[in-house]
Amino acid sequence: MPIGTFLCLLALVRLSQQQFPRACATAEALLSKECCPIWEGDGSQCGQASGRGSCQDVTISEAPDGPQFPHSGVDDREQWPVVFYNRTCQCAGNFMGFNCADCKFGFFGPNCEEWRVSIRRNILHLTSSEKNKFIAYLNLAKNTISKDFVIATGTYNQMNNGSNPLFRDISVYDLFVWMHYYTSRDALLGGTDNVWRDIDFAHEAPAFLPWHRAFLLLWEHEIRKLSGDDSFTIPYWDWRDAESCDVCTDEYMGGRHPTNPNILSPASFFSSWQDTFLAL
Q1: Per-residue pLDDT tens for 60-71?
Q2: Beta strand pairing call for 87-91 and 167-168
Q3: Angle at Cα 272 formed by Cα 269 and Cα 274, nearest 5°?
């Protein structure tokens, strides 16, 4: 199966395991290749004592790679996540997450039994208070270190096959910047400047639409957990008939600087944000 297609399927089924849980960013976890953290609710791996999930071998497709990626066994993302972990939490019922602590998208409640419909609204139709709350949540995410996830700052080989973990903290917002980068970046083939630049698994493969759909659902999910606001939904911008970028103003996502069109206006809320993203 092509990497892009496999990443797409992972995004739909268990996206939260596509990255690196803090609890599994240790030499012990990497050397054992097991990522089955404890769920604090009952003190068992994957919440097994409560029927949430269990620690199982990762199952991957044996279908051949597609011709768009003529390499094998050279990129950490191939047959994800077996390069790093070959045993992970497999969640049951309406549970999801790296330790089955969360509810699947659309489900709520302590046992994930309550189904709710989320209503998404045009960002230009939000009231001032709704718009300000949305921006406040973005700022909160930008300035809050993720308690659940870290990012890799090196490849598996650079980590000496797990004995030398290379991870760093990152904010909830920047985590998703990194996730997008990690999926779409060039394939690292080993050695200095030895990369495969002719593929972008997030944008130039069948994964494009479903991967981004799941990506936004998880981002929304993390904002809800961070803010404690289960009613939060990501607003949308209907650009179909727009003659210009309606949201590229200081009231919304930021206008252009009056003397330098390559940066945001100093009146924009986001102009004070610092670039803390560390690319590999």
Answers
A1: 888 777 777 788
A2: unpaired
A3: 130
